[in-house]
Design goal:
single chain; 416 residues; mainly alpha; 75% helix
Length: 416
């Protein structure tokens, strides 16, 4: 019977090493699981070194990507969950998945993680060494999964959470891309009229040497102002953008901008729904994984990406540490409507807070969908009507002298 060398962790996280005789590595993993140990690595003692080296040298020619996205990490989590559930050890799971990863940067990270685990680190400790790739919520959930012995279930929850985050970002992008496109198109049309079309009409009117109607004079004055101060307008626009970026990168400035966006009538409603979706999704996922409420709130506050809301959640966390309940503290802030507050209170009383928070998150995710669809149906006609109105004013102002001349010729006056 083959001999296997294993490394495993007990429920306290202590690393244990030993030797077992079994028919396969999977049999060793199952035996360790029966005695309450989590297999970290299982290797056959008689494994030929040359075969191991050959396996390590197998590489595919792939395109190097600079960024590791959430979708790739979600796929990794789902694959890890499947393999661990099937009885494959953590190290073997990571090494097998590494061979299938297309992103070279991510592949190198996984190799480092595998090496650190072999040297005695836990999975959460090895992942924590890559904070730019694996977030605080990711590490907290993995640690909770290791402590509870439900690592495969936690990995599936993480995969769902990351995929939901990708969907939410896609919705936000969809809500903002179209108005930006229409706005740029609108600016281009107005610039074409002001900088190119109106000056040609102006030359024509000057050559006729006649008095122009007031609307025409105003539009031509705007055109002259824009042409003669074009460089200053560009500098002003660039300075405004740079100033906003600088202000947003300071904590007081970021607070004011975030609060202004929250207080804006239509945009604020959409941002609030996005904040609530992120908050409840994160909180539900963490609590389900076994992370305590205080730590979950601390992590969830950082995920929502809004300073005023982050401060509210931090205040809630402090009050809970003093003995208050989540629902009672949420009720003190207008950010949380009555419906989620009531559902949270029911969840706390029933002991199913994670399930209730997940339902709230699903509700607000649907609300974000509905809001995006509403934006798409409303913004398009509004922007088109506005664009038509502005362009119409310019066109009518330029053709007023021509209409006046035509009326004068028909009445026999000639000229304007």
């Amino acid at each position: 019977m083959p001999k296997f060398v294993y490394k495993a962790r007990d429920k306290q996280g202590k690393l244990l090493e030993g030797v077992k005789f079994a028919n396969s590595s999977r049999e060793v993993v199952e035996e360790l699981d029966r005695v309450g140990l989590l297999a970290v690595s299982v290797e056959e003692a008689t494994e030929i070194v040359g075969e191991k080296e050959k396996k390590k040298k197998k590489k595919r020619e792939v395109e190097v990507r600079k960024r590791i996205n959430a979708k790739e990490i979600a796929i990794f989590c789902r694959q890890m969950a499947t393999m661990i559930n099937a009885g494959v050890s953590i190290v073997e799971s990571i090494e097998d998945i590494t061979q299938m990863v297309v992103n070279v940067k991510f592949r190198n990270v996984l190799k480092t993680v595998s090496t650190n685990i072999k040297r005695g680190s836990s999975l959460s400790e090895a992942l924590k060494k890559h904070p730019r790739i694996f977030s605080r919520i990711f590490i907290a959930m993995i640690r909770a999964g290791e402590e509870s012995g439900n690592l495969d279930i936690v990995l599936l929850d993480l995969s769902d959470y990351l995929e939901n985050g990708v969907k939410l970002r896609r919705k936000i992008k969809s809500a903002s891309t179209y108005p930006v496109f229409i706005g740029v198109f609108f600016a281009g049309v107005v610039a074409g009229l002001v900088l190119f079309l109106i000056p040609r009409f102006k030359k024509l009117f000057i050559s006729m040497g006649t008095d122009l109607p007031l609307p025409t004079k105003i539009v031509m004055g705007i055109s002259d102002l824009a042409i003669h101060n074009f460089h200053w307008l560009i500098l002003l626009a660039g300075g405004a953008v740079a100033g906003l970026v600088f202000l947003y990168n300071t904590k007081p400035g970021r607070f004011k901008i975030d609060k202004l966006l929250l207080d804006t009538p239509i945009v604020g409603v959409f941002i609030t729904k996005v904040i609530l979706t992120r908050f409840f999704q994160t909180l539900a996922t963490l609590l389900k994984s076994g992370v305590d409420v205080v730590a979950s709130l601390e992590i969830a506050a950082k995920v929502i990406n809004n300073i005023p809301a982050e401060q509210m959640i931090d205040n809630i966390r402090i009050k809970i540490m003093e003995g208050s309940s989540l629902a009672a503290e949420m009720a003190n802030y207008t950010l949380f409507p009555r419906m989620p507050v009531r559902m949270t209170a029911i969840g706390e009383k029933s002991g199913k807070i994670d399930e209730m928070l997940a339902r709230i998150a699903e509700y607000y995710s649907d609300e974000v969908d509905a809001t995006v669809e509403g934006f798409s149906s409303i913004i398009e006609p509004v922007l088109i009507v506005f664009l038509g109105f502005i362009v119409g004013i310019f066109i009518i102002s330029m053709y007023l002298p021509i209409f006046k001349m035509a009326i004068g010729m028909m009445s026999g006056g000639g000229g304007f």
